[in-house]
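Exercise 7.
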Amino acid sequence: MTSLALAGAGTVALSGSAVADPNDLSTVRERMEQVGDQVDELYHEAEVANERYLQAQEKHAAAAEELASAQAAVERQKQKVADLTRSMGGFAAAAYRQGVVDPALQLVLSDDPQAALAESTMMDAFADQQSAALEKVAAERTALAQRQAGVAEQAAVLADLEGDMAVQKQAIDAKTQQAEDLLSSLQDRERQILAEIEARRQAEQERQAAALAASRDRTRQGAAPGAAAAGTPAAGAAASPPPAAPSVPVPASGRGGAAVAFALAQVGDSYGYGATGPNAWDCSGLTSGAWRAAGVSVPRTSQGQVYGLPRVSLNDLQPGDIIGYYGGASHVGLYIGNGQVVHSSRPGRPVSVVSLYSMPVVGAVRPG
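Solution. The predicted structure, written as tokens, is:
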């Protein structure tokens, strides 16, 4: 079913029924549930493309730096070859072009054989030096050719990365446009119902977060000291809400507390693909910015954060921990305690606080 079929005012065939009245309230609500899911999926696909774009961007920056270094090395090598060539002088050039006179013939033809012998010995030594210099020049020319080949190879890598970035940017734009077209096709009544659905979902998430926090409080009060905590889910696997952790949560203080305070101060800011503040953020831009404000450098991308930082159990979360979501950790949020995270989700939704399990969790990590 296409986006326009979902959003249009025409008749919609529903599973398990005959033709439904498109103006019937229950039919409209069901259609808007589907529209809401589809919009979320389109924006999520755009976010996945955004993370891939950021990864390619990081590789591009590193490749550009390597290319500049390789080009500088080529220029140094060119100068080295030129200096060596000049230092050989006229004799080496002539010897290289014509060869030297045979020493035995010099001795026979000379009027003073003794002087000729001494001169021949001196010439042999000089020729040996020049021959070594010629060999060195040849070696340096070979090294120059190798460096030039390395520059060409690095330039090709750079071009490939630029092509990948262009592909991901097109995917971001296409998915975002599809979502915006779908939303703009809705009638006022449908928009109102969609807003009610989103508000109901948000309220349910908050209820689940409160229930989770209350459950953990009860378990902490009755748990025996030293009870074992469950492990962290494997990368790429969605996690269900775990049982309450017996450990007492650490207050939001120190670097984790500073990261949380920074992230919460951004609540209400806009979402922006590739944005790192100060008034717009993407998901990993917010988490990396929060920890940067706390004095800790973390990877820029969501995958770099979730798969590059120390893993922690979901039963032992502390404020400031970074939570990874969806397969491949294409989204992240910052845990703030009480079963909640602050995150930047998608266009049209500002930075907000939601339930920890409002999205499928793949794991948690702790910077610092």
